[in-house]
Design a protein that fits this description.
This protein is α/β, with parallel strands linked by helices. The protein has 2 domains: 207 residues, L-asparaginase, N-terminal domain (Rossmann fold), CATH 3.40.50.1170; 116 residues, Rossmann fold. The protein is 27% helix and 21% strand. The protein is built from 9 helices and 18 strands. The strands form 5 sheets. An 8-stranded mixed sheet has the order 4-1-5-7-8-9-12-13, sandwiched between helices. β2 and β3 form a beta hairpin. α3 packs parallel to α8, α5 runs parallel beside α6 and α8 packs antiparallel against α9. It is globular. The structure holds aspartic acid. Aspartic acid binds next to loops.
Length: 344
């Protein structure tokens, strides 16, 4: 039977066109994009399309649109072998992370891609990204199961785990990297699947979609000179449920007594405070230095080697499911979709 892939266009540079009056890039319709890739007709796969209306620059992405996307995939799940989501690069890592949590026990590929140059431009990177993403989305193993039953980001020759990925460049075609997890697939002359790095769902169980997110969360970075009044203001914000705190190195913070006191008050009031390093590579190890150890004592939880994008969307997902902050803290310490490196 012929494979079927659903191509979902949310917007982003890949489908944009230059406004003749302002010269700025703006979202354009899907037909224009497809007309620029006649190669799609060569696939021995049925490619159906779904378009977000209106298509958006991904800077306008939101939890509501993540819920819409989760619905589109859930509603079409049984009819297709895989999904390719065209998305702007700016917030692609957030959307891919959110969807990885919302699609539990995913047994089919959901491959995000986009481009740095619009598909209508001569030097576009969009064609290769799109064509290889479709190839990966329809790829099956010898048992007829999807080779990549994961939410991934394909860009510049590599497939990365979505919830491990960060946008690293606004300039290079190689726009993304997963600093703490190796590439899932390398696409050179041959497409090489690293099966040992790819998640193994239970193929006998159905995929379980989720549609709820709770965005009462904030991200803040520590820096030398950070002010007490501002930090206190954030920590005591009434509806705020959780904080992604970006710390130094292996999870260290200034040892000011007021900071530790404020963090302790926050955790005692039920706020979940997650420690994520400002470094791209490596993990939080709060017991390594005294400056990290005190954070642990204040009730701050380790984010291990999580990306910021993954931590913030995981919190949105967890706090929409659990009212108990202790349960959220416990789940933050576990890898639920391969997002952190912890021994279970
Ligand atoms: N601003 C664009 C977006 O994220 C950039 C891109 O697509 O690469 O939608």
């Amino acid at each position: 039977m012929q494979n079927k892939v659903l191509l979902i266009y949310t917007g982003g540079t890949i489908g944009m066109n230059r406004n003749p009056l302002t010269g700025a890039l703006e979202p354009f319709d899907f037909e224009h994009l497809l007309n620029n890739v006649p190669e799609l007709k060569q696939f021995d796969t049925q490619i159906a399309t779904y378009q977000f209306n209106p298509p958006i620059d991904s800077s306008d992405m939101s939890p509501r649109l993540w819920t819409d996307l989760s619905h589109v995939i859930a509603d079409n799940y049984d009819q297709y072998d895989g999904f390719v989501v065209l998305h702007g690069t700016d917030t692609m890592a957030y959307t891919a992370s959110a969807l990885s949590y919302m699609l539990e026990n995913l047994t089919k590929p959901v491959i995000f891609t986009g481009s740095q140059l619009p598909i209508g431009q001569l030097r576009t990177d969009g064609k290769e990204n799109l064509i290889t993403s479709i190839e990966i989305a329809m790829s099956k193993d010898e048992n007829g199961r999807a080779r990549v039953p994961e939410v991934g980001i394909y860009f510049g020759g590599h497939l990365l785990r979505g919830n491990r990925t960060t946008k690293q460049s606004a300039e290079e075609f190689n726009a993304f990297e997963s600093f703490n997890y190796p590439h899932l697939v390398e696409a050179g002359v041959n497409i090489i699947y690293h099966n040992d790095r790819i998640l193994k769902p239970d193929f006998n169980k159905p995929m379980k979609p989720h549609f709820r997110l709770d965005n009462n969360v904030i991200i803040f970075s520590l820096f030398p000179g950070v002010r007490e009044d501002l930090i206190r203001h954030i920590i005591h914000t009434p509806n705020l449920k959780s904080i992604v705190m970006r710390t130094f190195g292996s999870g260290n913070a200034p040892q000011n007594p007021w900071l530790l006191k404020a963090l302790k008050e926050g955790t005692q009031n039920g706020k979940v405070i997650v420690n994520i390093s400002q470094c791209m590579q490596g993990a939080v190890e709060m017991s390594r230095y005294d400056t990290g150890f005190h954070l642990q004592e204040a009730g701050v939880v380790s984010g291990y080697d999580s990306t910021v994008e993954s931590a913030v969307t995981k919190l949105m997902f967890l706090q929409s499911h659990y009212n108990d902050p202790d349960k959220v803290r416990e789940m933050m310490k576990q890898s639920i979709r391969g997002e952190i490196s912890v021994v279970q």
